[in-house]
Amino acid sequence: MGNQQQPLLPEMISELQLWFDSELGQALLEAERAMVEQIVPTLFGYRLVQIGVDSRTVLFGESHVQQKFMVAPRLQLGLSGSSVIASNTELPLEQHSIDVAILHHALDFTESPHQVLREAARVLRPGGHMLLISFNPLSMWGLYRKCLGRRRGLVPWCGHFVSHRRLSDWFKLLELTELKQQSDCFEAPFISPKWRHRSRHIGRVLKNAPAEFGAFNLMLARKDVVGMTPIKPEWSKRHLITLPIAKPTARGQSRESR
């Protein structure tokens, strides 16, 4: 995976937002959003949380889930009143309180990708679904990242780019059953749209390959815990929308409960 040192997420947010605002970043987001919008309407429940790196990017607009909110790494203008400011590695949410969790590049920009995934799995209820979007190392983007050398510290190439194979192993450890894996954005990561267009021939070859070689991977998983029955929310008794914020506890007790 190559977990090279990278700055803490709050220190990278401004750079990440500038990159996502670029033509290349917008092209990636457009491809990701198109794929997410095909899946999100099929996921149901009472609570949905999006965990990511750019709070301006909302991927749950097409969701039918009643209560939707976002975990933001820092306070920013424009955040909705239902947003939670917290670290992706320590979510202040109750265990088994979320029906749908969307992780948008949350594993790419963190000190501990596995811890972020474990926290998301902890708050997910049995039978709940996780939608994970992350950079794919087995792509033209991953190849470009390897060729950068010393410039690899630049955003977004400083990300971890966790392979699908490793993510599948982590899913199994966390009792997550992988249901679907897709990939898209097969062109080379040139800044110029003209050069990206010229690389479309290579992109067509990669798109038709048996393996997934797109710039990002999208994985859909379900939390299947042996011996536990999915908890159905009491719809009729809930009149006010409240966030499933965990009650303050001693740090040692919190760690032990995980």
Walk me through the structure.
The protein is of the alpha/beta class and 258 residues long. Helices cover 31% and strands 19% of the residues. The protein has helices spanning 9-21, 23-39, 113-123, 140-147, 164-173, 193-198, 200-207, 251-257, and strands at 47-52, 67-72, 84-85, 98-104, 124-135, 176-184, 216-223. A seven-stranded mixed sheet has the order 3-2-1-4-5-7-6. Strand 4 (98-104), helix 3 and strand 5 form a beta-alpha-beta unit. It starts with 8 loop residues before the first helix and ends with a helix.
Strand-helix topology:
Layout: H1 9-21, H2 23-39, E1 47-52, E2 67-72, E3 84-85, E4 98-104, H3 113-123, E5 124-135, H4 140-147, H5 164-173, E6 176-184, H6 193-198, H7 200-207, E7 216-223, H8 251-257
Describe the structure in brief.
By secondary structure, the chain is α/β, with parallel strands linked by helices. The protein is built from 8 helices and 7 strands, in the order H-H-E-E-E-E-H-E-H-H-E-H-H-E-H.
Write a concise keyword list for the protein shown above:
7 strands; disordered C terminus; 258 residues; alpha/beta; Rossmann fold; seven-stranded mixed β-sheet; 19% strand
